[in-house]
Protein: GNAT family N-acetyltransferase
Amino acid sequence: MLRLESKRLYYEHLEEKHFEVFYSQESDPEVMKYIRKASQDKDEARKKFNDYLSYMKLHPKLGVWAVFEKETQNQIGLGVLFHIEMKPESGRYEVGYRFNQTSWGKGYATELTHRFLQYGFNELGLKEICGTTNPDNIVSQKVLMKTGMKDMGITTEFRSGSRFFVLNRDEYHPSDD
Structure:
């Protein structure tokens, strides 16, 4: 299992044991508000979960991680670093995250994004990492900008209608956030 760590969090590559928390987030309308429509049932969530697992078999250093607080050992979220829309043909990579509502406002999204940028640039040698947000998700836009990503405006290329952010490796400046 691929595991990463940051100051307050650790990240485990997604496995079957993470499904129940995945489902609780996937079915929470507030958690999913700016991502996509919340899953209506376990079968719908299971399909998305299995899509992630299938992608990770083909791309073992990329994928989806269950996010845990070091202090409590609780699974609190999900982080991604993978090809945009999980389509290798895009030639681009994106970072993303979601957290349980009880974990909002603690700086975890910024911490995760910094760690995944570091992993992508320094350990995988990626040249560019992107992020997309719903145009109304101001909080996530601030996170991406705080981590050095540049707002490129509304995109029609990927997730049409989303705000698109980009950071190149040569513009990346690690942080301790």
User: Anything to note?
Assistant: The longest strand covers residues 75-83. The chain has five helices and eight strands. Helices lie at 19-26, 29-32, 42-58, 108-123, 138-146. The CA atoms of residues 20 and 42 lie 9 Å apart.
